[in-house]
Design goal:
This protein has a single domain, classed as Immunoglobulin-like, CATH 2.60.40. It is built from 1 helix and 8 strands, in the order βαβββββββ.
């Protein structure tokens, strides 16, 4: 976006322990108008699961955030997030499946 100031720290200075940690650390220490904080991670589900609680590594300031969910392998299942709290959310599946999903929770100021 033209005219929107932002900065992102050098990846080498972050000492990441995983991709999720790296993305979270970069967004936490970056400045970008319109974005408060981020939480990223993965959650594995089984064919018996149709709702799974997801807990963040650290709480967000409030429950005003958006959740984006992406399967890590091809699956035919719909997903949604509900019961958003500062500590996490409930991942809902339209059917049970053995799969892993990535999530990105974006807080807005």
């Amino acid at each position: 976006m033209a005219g929107v100031p932002h900065s992102v720290p050098a990846v080498a200075d972050m000492s990441p322990v995983s991709h999720a940690h790296l993305v979270g650390a970069m967004f936490d220490s970056s400045t970008h108008v319109g974005v408060a904080q981020f939480r990223v991670g993965t959650v594995a589900v089984t064919v018996l699961d149709t709702a799974v609680p997801v807990t963040f590594s650290s709480a967000l300031p409030d429950s005003s955030y958006e959740v984006f969910i992406q399967p890590k392998s091809p699956v035919s299942v719909s997903t949604s997030a509900s019961a958003l709290t500062t500590d996490g959310f409930m991942l809902n599946l339209s059917a049970g499946v053995n799969a892993t999903f990535s999530y990105l929770a974006i807080g807005v100021p």
